[in-house]
User: What shape does this take?
Amino acid sequence: MKFGIIGCGGIADRRTIPGMLKSKMVTITAVEDVSEELAQNVAKKYSIGSSYTNEDDLIRNDDVEAVYIGTPVWVHGEQIQKAADAGKHILCEKPLAISIKETEKLIDYCEKRNVVLQVGFMMRYHGYHIKAKEMVDSKAIGNPVMGRGQLTCWYPPMENAWRQDPAKGGGGALMDMAIHTVDILRYLLGEVSAVSSFNGTETHGYAVEDSGIILLRFQNGAYGVCDSFFNIPDEAAKGVLEVYGTRGSVMAEGTISQVAGGTMMAYLQGEDRGYDAQQERSSIEPVKVEADLKDMYMAEVEDFIDAVEKKRKPMNSGAEALKNFSIIQAAYKSQKTGKVVKV
Assistant: This one.
């Protein structure tokens, strides 16, 4: 499939374009950025034929069949609609929009124009996360009881940083990072019925939250915790994923990340030993989980192409993105009202 890249700095240059080019199913024919210098440099770096400073010119290019949108959130809507009008299939970074209403509008807009819309929740394609889902679904850890996802970094105040402006990014640590862990816990444990949250700005002086914890209640009775902070050093937070069940657990470190790495261990109880008053936890031997660690951005785009060819919804469809976004909005509402919010 021939792709055009709208917004070729940041995550596009750092992760998405290199991942896409690892796939034999992808050709990138054009890139666009409001910075002419950046667009030209990226085109030269990856030997891409055309570079533009206006998305309209890229979208009109007949040599572009689909677009990847890696621009700031507040401009997604217009770019998605332009691409859909031109019949281009769309892979867009999360979140799709600033509000639930606009997100719903964009999903409906793409459906009416018969174009595939996929959203960049690439961590579902991590080999260890796929293995964790297999273990949950097969009841290897028994009935799921609790899950935790951690995604945290150091993100100090910076001039013109759109993620630090709620009008441009829609939120801070929760919207930018916790939305990924919400997605992974939903992928593993199913749909969410209720949300509670503490979040706010505790360290930095910008207008979005730099600290947040989201508590989830799943429809199957399990609980979840998502913790994301903009005020903890990158090296101090290990991108932890934990899933606990009635017969064991799966614990990973370094998998909640942009890179398909990390480690995963399973702690599985064999025959039911009944109540152990001494709680001899060391009696359960850890088992190292092995997985095929493909580039997540390559896997993401290959799923997208397969969805287009087979005329099916991709795993990370607009509907999935809306569910994740609605949970983040419920977390903000919970903080404001001090109440549990049903979803």
About this structure: Residues 24 and 302 are 9 Å apart (CA to CA). The longest strand covers residues 192-200. The two ends are 37 Å apart (CA to CA).
